[in-house]
Design a protein that fits this description.
This protein is mainly β. It contains one helix and seven strands; from the N terminus they run E-H-E-E-E-E-E-E. The strands form two sheets. The chain has a five-stranded mixed sheet, with helices on one face. Strands 3-4 form a two-stranded antiparallel sheet.
Length: 91
């Protein structure tokens, strides 16, 4: 996995074609995981520094508002099947 500092995820997402090749990253900042790409959306989880994520796609609302659809890297055999695994983070 790649560890990214705050703001570093943006460069990684821009260099990656997320729709064809999900990329595993480790976030270097605390972030909220939202149900859909809007700041008024329901917050599902707070992600801590060091959380491993798979980047699934990028959504550009405007130049100043970019969202990334992510999936938490999980152990499918050991994790609770009802655990929230996907959501959106704001860049």
């Amino acid at each position: 996995p790649i560890t990214l500092p705050a703001g570093g995820i943006q460069k990684s997402v821009n260099q990656n074609n997320c729709s064809n090749n999900p990329k595993e990253i480790t976030i270097g900042f605390n972030a909220s995981l939202y149900s859909f790409p809007e700041i008024n959306a329901k917050e599902l989880l707070t992600l801590d520094v060091g959380t491993n994520l798979l980047v699934l796609r990028k959504w550009e609302v405007s130049e100043s508002e970019i969202w990334v659809r992510v999936e938490l890297a999980t152990n499918k055999l050991l994790d609770d099947p009802n655990k929230i695994k996907k959501g959106w983070i704001k860049m």
